[in-house]
């Protein structure tokens, strides 16, 4: 069948989005999703999302990783689908939608290109040696490093994601370095499901901001700017020393192009 798709990006994290409110796509197999996300043989993207109807919500977000498997929560994907919902006229400036990790609230600018997305609360951060491990809707490994601009993120991230501890379920690997002479951090991420470095990772930069607050013993209302390969994001949250709440991931979300493509369903 012929479907209309939309390509969005949020700080370089790019996605294929499809309006499935009419439920025409009753199922998408792994190979179809992987082909649509392929940068040589398909549209190209770090993931694919379906926007669907859901009782009690403005919409439901169904997320697939680029490898074709249904994924856990994607922060930048969540921001992009909010922008998509505004483009479709489903929402105006605020929304409540359902994702795989539960209910999310978000606000979007009048221009439709800046989204503030509430993330799930976090009350557990574990250690793996010097690294921090936590779940912000997806599991993340956060490690401070140096000379991050020249780090071999693919090979170093691949090794951690596939070690004995994480190989079975996978984990997203974030390397972080304080920005010199500025507030905030520079982050590069190896993402499971993409199995490569991406230009940004929303749940990843959220995990970094929380882990660094714990690492630096910061408490109260915190706002943490993050630089990624694809641009700039901001995470604001409250931390009382035990629990992180009122967590918001903020940044750009923009329509790149739209088109039609044939898929086998």
UniProtKB/TrEMBL annotation:
Main localisation: cytoplasm
A GO biological process held by the record: lysine biosynthetic process via diaminopimelate
Molecular-function annotations in GO: diaminopimelate epimerase activity
Lineage per the UniProt record: Bacteria, Pseudomonadati, Bacteroidota, Sphingobacteriia, Sphingobacteriales
EC annotation from Swiss-Prot or TrEMBL: 5.1.1.7
GO cellular component: cytosol
Name of the featured protein: Diaminopimelate epimerase
Segment forming the signal sequence: none
Compartments it resides in: Cytoplasm
Originating species: Mucilaginibacter pallidiroseus
Annotated site residues (Could be important to modulate the pK values of the two catalytic cysteine residues) in this chain: 140, 191
Pfam families reported for this sequence: DAP_epimerase
